[in-house]
Amino acid sequence: MKKIILLLVLLVTVLTVNAQTSTGESLTDGNFNKWSIEFSGGFNKPQKPMKFYTSTPSLFVVDLGARYMFNNKFGLKADLGYNSFQEEKNSTPFDTKYYRFDVQGIANLGRIMNFETWTNTIGLLGHTGFGAAYFEDKNSSLDDKMINFIIGITGQIKLSNKLVLTGDFSTIMNALQGYTYDAAAVNPEKGFNGALFNGTLGLTLYLGKNEKHADWVTLIDKDVLAQRERIDALEKMLIDSDKDGVADYLDLEPNTIAGLMVDSKGRAVDLNNNGIPDELESYLTKTYANKSEAPISDSQSITNLVNGGYVAAYFDFNKSTPTDSSMDGINFVLNYLRNNPSASVEITGYADEIGNATYNEKLATERANSVKNILLKAKIASERINVVSGGVDASVDKESATARKLVRRVTFKINN
């Protein structure tokens, strides 16, 4: 037993020294509760000095304590304890009481051993300290004053963020103990020779307005936290949503059709600036040289491409007339409508973020109507054309002039 006690003392001492010298653990915000009230009761077994015997185990023990945690691993506890000793059935009668007050250091072994990697409801505390004790015998009016050393382990089961069920096993050793625990004889030894074992069950009530107590929070070193945030930011920057080989933070065209050739900014290559990627245009021109002979499956492919936003009309800043290069895209939709009389088209206009929001909403509608008028002049019936205002497109960097060009546009949606 002495070896076990010495081992526990060494463990708590090393952990306490580590708490005092470690600079790696930083309290990042302190948003956790630190105070708790603890109440427990149970059994005891005085080992020595004894002349007679108590039952094994015997009633009873009561303990009341208040604890303060400096961080999620280390703290202090002050507690009051009461033990009652009575004879077993075949022993000489006695009725003695033992009172103590101790100040103890607390090591949250659950956090130190990273219990959070496998449980959020089971914890473990180690505690040790010194105090004063008072002993009395009700039958003989004998009393005794002594000092004590206490060490123990407390298991925790979290019932809620405010309440915890505990089970504790502690060893108490007394010095300057003048009498045996049964008050039947004088104790000839004055060193730490008195041995008393306590086993209790109890409840811990956490105090404070925060959600969690220090017993259950995991603190991260500020430098480590900063590194994690930088890594997370880099990982987000390197996401390539459309799988075109250009990270999203550099991609000015984040929804490029998979497999198309793109430039360094993630834009589908469009050397003639007509709003249709060159690879698509080459395919469409070759496949649909005679648009009226296009099979249904190919017609559906064209519809999907147009509805995907890859055929569009673009506008200069604060203008509602399409750029010259955009006419090819409009003509592409026009030819489709001519060769598919049952098809209709929805035209949606957009504006960039520069300027007044109400004005930009109006400008977006004017751009859609401008394209509608081109189709009307080409003899497309008005009932086949529907105009929608997409308003302000805030999906790109407002400070980038190049990015803003991409959102000053009209897109098409073909309905067959």
> Beta-strand level of the residues, as a percent range?
25-35%
Rg from alpha-carbon coordinates: 40 Å
Give the beta-strand count.
Answer: 12
CATH architecture of the largest domain: Beta Barrel
Largest sheet: 8 strands, antiparallel, barrel
Summed over residues and divided by their number, the pLDDT gives a mean of 82
| N to C succession of SSEs | HEEEEHEEEEHHHEHEHEHE
Outline type: rod-shaped
CATH class placement of the largest domain: Mainly Beta
Query: What is the tally of helical segments?
Result: 8
Looking across the biggest beta sheet, what order are the strands in? 1-2-3-4-5-6-7-8
- Termini Cα gap: 88 Å
Poorly predicted parts: 1-28, 287-297
Describe the structure.
The chain has helices at residues 2-21, 109-112, 222-237, 278-287, 296-310, 327-339, 357-377, 401-407, and strands spanning 35-48, 58-69, 74-86, 95-108, 122-137, 142-158, 163-175, 194-207, 312-314, 344-351, 385-392, 409-415. Mean pLDDT is 82; it is low at 1-28 and 287-297. It has 2 domains: 2-225, Porin (Beta Barrel); 270-415, 60s Ribosomal Protein L30, Chain: A (2-Layer Sandwich), CATH 3.30.1330. 25% of the residues lie in helices and 33% in strands. The chain is built from 8 helices and 12 strands. A hairpin with a 4-residue loop joins strand 6 (142-158) and strand 7 (163-175). The chain starts with a helix and ends with a strand. With 416 residues, it is of the alpha+beta class. The chain has an 8-stranded antiparallel β-barrel with strand order 1-2-3-4-5-6-7-8. The protein is rod-shaped, with a radius of gyration of 40 Å. The longest helix is centred in the C-terminal third of the chain and has 21 residues, at 357-377.
